[in-house]
Amino acid sequence: MGAMREADVKTDELIELLAQDAAPPWPYRTVFLVAVTGGVVMSALVFHSFIGVRPDVDRALETARFLFKFVITIALAVGATGLALTMSRPGARRGRWLKAGSEQEQFEIVR
């Protein structure tokens, strides 16, 4: 039992030492959003270098179908980014990003 108590003390000391570490230089939200922005820029550059711009982009911009693709993609990206940011922090409040999901689950259960 004595050996077990020594291990508990060492664990408690380790936890206290870890808790005393310096805070990160930037908030997590900032690091996350910079990483997402960098990913979007990199994927746009790779897409443009391999595929390029459509030759008839001026005509395509006039159609609702072409513009609707961007509206849907941006809406999904914003929602997914907000959800990923919320879920990546342990103990974070559910916030508005997960409320929609919980309402959908409730609707499915009622059906």
Automatic annotation (TrEMBL):
What Pfam families does UniProt report for this protein, alphabetically? NrsF (PF06532)
**This protein's UniProt keywords:** Membrane, Transmembrane, Transmembrane helix
* TM region(s), chain numbering: 31-51, 66-86
- InterPro entries under this entry? NrsF
UniProt name for this protein:
Uncharacterized protein
Q: Which organism is it from?
A: Ancylobacter dichloromethanicus
For this protein's source organism, the top of the classification is: Bacteria, Pseudomonadati, Pseudomonadota, Alphaproteobacteria, Hyphomicrobiales
